[in-house]
Amino acid sequence: MSGPSGTAPAPRTPRDYWACRACGAVFPPAPSAPDSCPICVDERQYVPPTGPDFATRAALAAEGFRVVTRPVQDRVTGLGTEPGIGVGHRGVLVETEAGNLLWDPPVFLDDDAVAEVERLGGAAVVASSHPHMYGAAVEWAELLDAEIVLPEADEPWLPWPSARVRRWNGTLVPLPGLTLVQTGGHFPGSAVLHLADGAGALFTGDTVMVTPGRDHVTFLYSAPNRLPLPERLVRRVVDAVRDLEFDTIHGGWWDLSVRANAKEVLLRDADRYVSFLRGDLPKYD
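^ thats the sequence. predicted structure below, dont judge the formating
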């Protein structure tokens, strides 16, 4: 689209929104910080002992925050904020012939970050695994002219209302070859993203958590508060993905990926997790 004189419009500048340093929730521009963060006061997160802590995007930029990119797999690029903020997650840009999808968008963004995503083909859709990883979804979508797709059950957790939001339930195919699946678990609307290309890959945020050894997965209601996920919700997650084909699971942080036999790992470790919930612990001397 051109401006009135026929020249290209000037690039849009990111707005100076507020970000919660503790959980990464992003709030719309305002003269002062929010009084509290609804995500932090929920039992799945926590309020820092020193109280709520918010910073503007401009303040984060002045502190040296930036978005770094790194390949995750073919046609999948990771985007993470350094230094870390909130839960410290990294998002991914998944490229397809019909357009790209930005998954679990970072909390921070600036002109360079948006330019890099646009160099990779932009994004037609922004989606997230759950509210702790909504990041700056609204601002990313505005600058990329993208749609935001959120499970209806979790839309109330988006702190920045937007007309770009499209609600969905169950499953959604936002682009050919990509399927969003509502698994529940951590949140009622917790979701995973399935990429059908090749042997298949599952992007799980922390709906299914890849453990540090990268050969197991686990399930939690709250990671920071060490609250387990009940058996019925673990089974619901497993049932939601059972019919998908995938050899890889990419968790929500750098380098936390199961890169072979991932479906077998998930099914095996779900049973393992339930055994521990039931008290079937290994025997010790």
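The chain has a mean pLDDT of 95.
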